[in-house]
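Still learning. Any example?
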Amino acid sequence: MRTALIIVLMCLLSGTLVGQRKELNLPPQKNYKKALLGFQASPNELEANDIYLFADSLTYQSGAGLTTYQYDQIKYIKVNEGSYAGLGAAIGGSLMLLTSLFAILEVSNDPNRELNNNAGFTLALFTIGGTGLGALVGLPFKRKRTYYLHYR
């Protein structure tokens, strides 16, 4: 009984020590070309250019020069983090691979058609082409991520 009480007290003590670590949920980079800022007092978003993140504030380039906001004034920061080229490549490649495999099955099951010796090479070419095409389709779509500024 006494060891159970000690274990419970140790867990509570360790939870309070971990909970006291204050670290803001900030984006990993310290400089962004473009971002959207959401404010605590307003439902509107502000599009900011050339943002620099510091320990307690952020600065961005506006028409009047540099503007600085403290983090307690900001609700969230929405930044671009890459594109969907990888997802497009995966979808395009797997789609072309499945289509090519179904075509090979169709040809091999039909007695009036004969499968060529270079079917594996053709399968690889179609798969690589679908992967490249999918990557090109996904490239212009930017991946946005929102960082809500709260202590974790």
